[in-house]
Amino acid sequence: MQIVLNTWTGLGLPAGIGHYAQQLASALQRTAADGDTVRVFPRGVWAQWYQWWMSVRRVPGVSAQLKYSSLSSWRGLVRCWPAALRSWWSTSVREALRWALGRSLRRYLRAVRAELYLEPNFVPLCWDVPVIITVHDLSPILYPHWHPDYRVRWLEKHLPRSLACAQRVLTVSEWTRQELVRHCGMSPERITVTYPGMRNQFRPCSRHTARRMLSRWGLPTDFILYVGTLEPRKNLERVLRTFLRLPRSCRRAVPFVLAGQYGWGAASLAELIAATGPDEGIYPLGYVPEKWLPWLYNAARALVYPSYYEGFGLPPLEMLACGGTVVVADLPVFQETLGSLALRVPADDVDAWHRVLYRLVVTDEFAHSEPNPLAVAWARRFSWENCALQTWRTFKSLPTIQRLAA
């Protein structure tokens, strides 16, 4: 069987869906049976160009240092346009890029004689061969105010056809599967849950060792942690304002470290962080290389993950894999993915967040805790090999593939 998987979102600095695409592609290739091949798209010039482009977009100051400054000049010019014109430009550029990628993918599918195309990002680039898609959550449809207009319009336009025409739909949790049945009217039999996995690098180590490594990089060594994109859906502004109600001396001794880049709609959050910063106990690190994450998890007193909505939520599970304490918003999906191994707080309950943050920062309750073996064992149930094997079973169960095999 010849499979093609679109890893476009995993190029550059992967996070979220990009991380999922990258890890699933590797796991599918490792677990492929004789006669089965998994190929990734894009390759060659497309991939090299996009990796360069994302490195320019996401690393502060890089565009200003380019020998050719046209990129930064154009971006500055676009920001001066009226909102409606910026929206039209953004949508047009993205649609043109998808059209070009779709043409390239069609040629690639024919060249490798692909029998199946797996799209990990909701909407496929083309329909030339049987397609399977992954739906991670329905927040752009159910809560459009948390997303940019272009993303909402794009999914409203294209997701219904994707759900109707895909041979099978993969979801990353039973919660998302139920959301598709409830809100999109899908038949449960067409949806398969394939849980994402943990990589081996996420495992317990001595807190002393982890803190020594962080001190070499000039980072705090006793802190609470958030990992993920800084955006409205993550409920960070509410929790940070609650954190700022704690005694200043305690906040400076046990700061709140934020590991992630700003997302859409984060201007208010960015202003709060800029107005406070390390002097008030808030440390924004920006995008953190993956090799740093195990040290951060193992050194932290706890991971705080207060999202209003998630389809899975990988960082809390990564923290459990390191044996650490996890505090999350009280969402149904976290009951499924974290069981009883996380402290849950109602997302909009300021007083409850204050009580939890006081325990984490002011008291010594979590200052010297050892890795929890139950948390580690729970997290190890989620592996990319299991995800890949379940995905392969889904491939093989498709009637079109069975007919080809016969």
Question: What is the element layout, followed by pairings?
Answer:
Elements: E1 2-6, H1 17-31, E2 37-41, H2 44-58, H3 70-79, H4 83-112, E3 116-119, E4 131-135, H5 139-142, H6 149-165, E5 168-171, H7 174-184, E6 191-193, H8 207-216, E7 224-227, H9 236-243, H10 248-253, E8 256-259, H11 267-276, E9 282-286, H12 293-299, E10 302-305, H13 314-321, E11 325-329, H14 332-338, E12 343-345, H15 350-361, H16 373-379, H17 384-397, H18 399-405
Parallel strand pairs: 1-2, 1-3, 3-4, 4-5, 5-6, 7-8, 7-10, 8-9, 10-11, 11-12
Descriptive notes:
By secondary structure, the protein is an alpha/beta fold. It folds into 2 domains: about 1-195 and about 385-405, Glycogen Phosphorylase B (Rossmann fold), CATH 3.40.50; about 205-380, Rossmann fold. The chain has helices at about 15-30, 45-60, 70-80, 85-110, 140, 150-165, 175-185, 205-215, 235-245, 250-255, 265-275, 295-300, 315-320, 330-340, 350-360, 375-380, 385-395, 400-405, and strands at about 1-5, 35-40, 115-120, 130-135, 170, 190-195, 225, 255-260, 280-285, 300-305, 325-330, 345. The strands form 2 sheets. Strands 2-1-3-4-5-6 form a 6-stranded parallel beta sheet, sandwiched between helices. Strands 9-8-7-10-11-12 form a 6-stranded parallel beta sheet, sandwiched between helices. The model is unreliable at about 60-80 (pLDDT under 50).
Features:
2 domains, 6-stranded parallel β-sheet, globular, single chain, about 400 residues, Rossmann fold, alpha/beta, 18 helices, about 50% helix
Dominant shape = globular
Largest sheet: 6 strands, parallel
Radius of gyration: 22 Å
Low-pLDDT segments: 58-78
Work out the helix count: 18
Taken together, the total number of domains comes to 2
**How far apart lie the N and C ends?**
12 Å
CATH class of the largest domain: Alpha Beta
- The CATH architecture of the largest domain is 3-Layer(aba) Sandwich
Strand content: 5-15%
